[in-house]
Structure to design on (227 residues):
């Protein structure tokens, strides 16, 4: 029987056993990333709301926004990517390529469901400041090594090339990005809700799903196979 105050809906306590396992997992992954030249970065949990506005499309409604005592519009961070972009923009003396990893709590005001919470830990790593495809290969290789270090014996990764999305509306890209989770029917349903006609949806889906590997993708594949 619960005797103390409850936690807000979508938030939870993490017991010592789970916290210990989580910490051990993070240590294994950060070790791999450090060996591959990534450095840690920490950013504030709270950002100015204006910093986060216009970055997430319809998902912006899930951002926790509030005013402080000075009347300033603030928000809890939605992810770790926008804070990274802000950090890079505010630090022009960074040496590139800048490889960073970050672990931190993020917040999303969505409907809680099995395995999904309004507060959770995000583990993010990126390379900034170069278009060298070898850096993309480094990120992919580090991700696969990290998955193996976490205990996955045969991890697989879905890889695409941004060149395949030229001329495709952002709404369509965001929907197709979820195709492995919601399947084609789910993508079609989402796009219909956004006002796309059946023939438009079929054109976009068939074009993307039947696209051939780009030159960059083939180059990336060759780099990974020789690493």
């Amino acid at each position: 029987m619960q005797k103390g105050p409850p936690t807000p809906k979508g938030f939870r306590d993490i017991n010592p056993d789970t916290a210990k396992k989580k910490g051990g997992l993070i240590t294994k992954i950060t070790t791999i990333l450090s060996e591959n030249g990534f450095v840690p970065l920490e950013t504030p949990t709270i950002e100015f709301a204006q910093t986060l506005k216009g970055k997430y499309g319809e998902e912006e409604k899930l951002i926790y926004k509030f005013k402080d005592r000075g009347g300033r519009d603030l928000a809890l961070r939605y992810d770790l990517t926008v804070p990274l972009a802000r950090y890079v923009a505010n630090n022009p003396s960074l040496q590139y390529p800048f490889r960073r990893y970050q672990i931190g709590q993020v917040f999303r005001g969505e409907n809680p469901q099995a395995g999904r919470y309004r507060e959770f830990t995000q583990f993010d790593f990126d390379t900034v400041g170069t278009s060298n495809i070898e850096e993309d290969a480094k990120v992919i290789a580090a991700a696969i090594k990290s998955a193996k270090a976490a205990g996955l014996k045969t991890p697989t990764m879905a890889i695409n090339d941004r060149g395949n999305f030229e001329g495709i509306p952002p709404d369509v890209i965001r929907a197709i990005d979820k195709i492995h989770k919601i399947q084609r029917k789910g993508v079609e349903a989402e796009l219909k809700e956004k006002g796309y006609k059946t023939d438009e949806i079929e054109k976009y889906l068939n074009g993307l799903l039947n696209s051939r590997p780009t030159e960059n993708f083939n180059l990336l594949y060759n780099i990974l196979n020789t690493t």
Notes: DSSP finds eight helices and six strands in the chain. Helices lie at 16-35, 49-52, 81-89, 133-149, 170-176, 179-193, 198-209, 215-226.
